[in-house]
TrEMBL record:
Swiss-Prot/TrEMBL keywords: Oxidoreductase, Transferase, tRNA processing
Listed PANTHER family: RHODANESE-LIKE DOMAIN-CONTAINING PROTEIN 7-RELATED (PTHR43268:SF3), THIOSULFATE SULFURTRANSFERASE/RHODANESE-LIKE DOMAIN-CONTAINING PROTEIN 2 (PTHR43268)
Function as written in the Swiss-Prot or TrEMBL entry: Catalyzes oxygen-dependent 5-hydroxyuridine (ho5U) modification at position 34 in tRNAs.
Gene symbol of the encoding locus: trhO
All copies of domain Rhodanese, residue ranges: 123-218
Record's keyword annotation contains Lipid metabolism: no
One annotated GO molecular function: transferase activity
Name of this chain's protein: tRNA uridine(34) hydroxylase
GO biological process: tRNA modification
Record keyword tRNA processing present: yes
Enzyme Commission designation: 1.14.-.-
Length: 324
């Protein structure tokens, strides 16, 4: 087994002491050498972190010891090293940006476990599958036959509802999906709010479907928000659906354009990656703000003074006491 774990998780649950819980999360991660991104909000917890297997197991145990998160669902993958360079634990109004006027704690689509979803994919002719991710995410991988929207983020969903209005009253079963399930909590709730019925969501998203059901009929790779950029999902009938942005050959190798002013997320074959020095066009290749291509197409933000302790209030308070 690979030495590091990558965790993906969320839970909608009221958090009255969000600021205090943010500090507790940050302190635990610092003390256990975990890196990644965690969001705390009054509506719940959302995170993806990496660390040594033992450290991640300690983190999962610690989170679940809190009764509010006793049923939280961790998606666990394994990796050769940390999937992140930094640790950020932030306090926000939402655990996923949506601005949708819904509350997943009051109403959301019916959860489908991976095995249930797989069976429906194979047997139900009235099934409609809808991708709730951004356009650059589904460009490199999506479920076979899924409806996709040309949107940058979930806040744009209301602008695309008209594209599926014809599904109302047709007796179709609508299943939404995303990377780890969190967007679908609000997206499926919004569809119900807009008058759609028979709305379901893939519990745990694409990642859990790959881990528990083999990923069958997910075509391409799954875009992830860490230095891996994409991960394999389908271990049954894999297929490449994306093409190199530069030369047009089949490629599911995702990069960020090396030009920091552009930074678009596009598929790019390895040959073009080196030829274009990681840039998506000749114009970007000649940009004075082009970053040095490292062969991966992933460019973590630089910070000369960064430490994992940044933003940890309890740490700052203790330092002030020591100085006094």
């Amino acid at each position: 087994m690979k030495p590091y774990s990558v965790l993906l998780y969320y839970q909608y649950v009221p958090i009255e002491d969000a600021e205090a819980y943010r500090d507790a999360q940050h302190e635990f991660c610092v003390n256990n050498n975990l890196l990644g991104r965690i969001i705390i909000a009054p509506e719940g917890l959302n995170g993806t972190v990496s660390g040594l297997v033992a450290d991640c197991e300690a983190y999962m145990k610690w989170v679940k010891e809190d009764p509010r998160f006793a049923t939280i669902d961790f998606k666990v993958e394994y990796h050769e090293a940390h999937a992140f360079q930094k640790l950020h634990v932030r306090l926000k109004e939402e655990i996923v940006n949506s601005d949708l006027p819904v509350d997943p704690l009051k109403q959301t689509g019916t959860h489908l476990e991976p095995a249930e979803f797989k069976q429906m994919l194979q047997e139900d002719p009235d099934l409609v599958v809808i991708d709730m991710r951004s356009n650059y995410e589904h460009s490199v991988g999506k479920f076979k036959g899924a409806i996709t929207f040309d949107m940058e983020n979930l806040r744009e969903l209301p602008e695309h509802i008209k594209e599926i209005e014809h599904l109302k009253g047709q007796g179709k079963k609508i299943v939404t999906y995303c990377t780890g399930g969190i967007k679908c909590e609000k997206a499926s709730a919004y569809l119900l709010d807009q008058g759609f019925d028979n709305v379901y969501q893939l519990h745990g998203g694409i990642i859990k479907y790959g881990l528990e059901a083999g990923g069958e009929d997910f075509e391409g790779k799954c875009y992830v928000f860490d230095n891996r950029l994409t991960v394999d999902v389908n271990h049954v009938n894999p297929k490449v659906i994306s093409k190199c942005y530069v030369c047009g050959t089949a490629s599911d190798r995702m990069v960020n354009c090396a030009n920091n002013d552009c930074n678009i997320h596009v598929p790019m074959c390895e040959e073009c990656g080196w030829k274009m020095e990681g840039a998506c066009s000749e114009e970007c290749k000649c940009s004075p703000n082009k970053r040095v291509y490292n062969g991966t197409g992933y460019y973590p933000k630089k910070s000369d003074h960064y430490t994992p302790l940044q933003g940890l209030k309890s740490f700052k308070k203790s330092m002030k006491k020591e100085e006094a």
